[in-house]
Amino acid sequence: MDYRIEVLTLPVSDVDASLAFYRSLGFNVDVDYHPRDGFRVVQVTPPGSACSIQFGEGLTDAAPGSARTNYLVVDDLEAAHRELVANGIKIGDIRHKEPIDTWAGELAPGLDPDRMPYASMAELADPDGNTWTLQEINNR
User: Fold this and answer.
1) Per its UniProt entry, which superkingdom is the organism in (predicted)?
2) Dist CA 15 CA 127 (whole Å)
3) pTM, whole model, 2 decimals?
């Protein structure tokens, strides 16, 4: 039996600000459905992803900004970081786990020298403070 994650729901306070933010990340807008007052669902999908995120009004009672440490995986962290900065996204500096073989939570500046998968990352947040870790995995 396969189990696939298809959609994750993010709690937001301003649907339009969130929609603008995720569009600026390059996410595709799959759905923007607002059939009545008090209910709206927006579903967006990162390019190349099988999993989407949704946010809106009347979808969750979780506090806006409470979705923490979500991951976006990219093949080339430097290129993704440059692209996001060029699009006006505030993103933290690239850091890597050190030492990778016995990692105990320490991070050093820049990419992992060996470009090991799961070792390099940078953080960003949406307008409500839902956080994302952009992580390089260039092989599995």
Assistant:
1) Bacteria
2) 10
3) 0.92
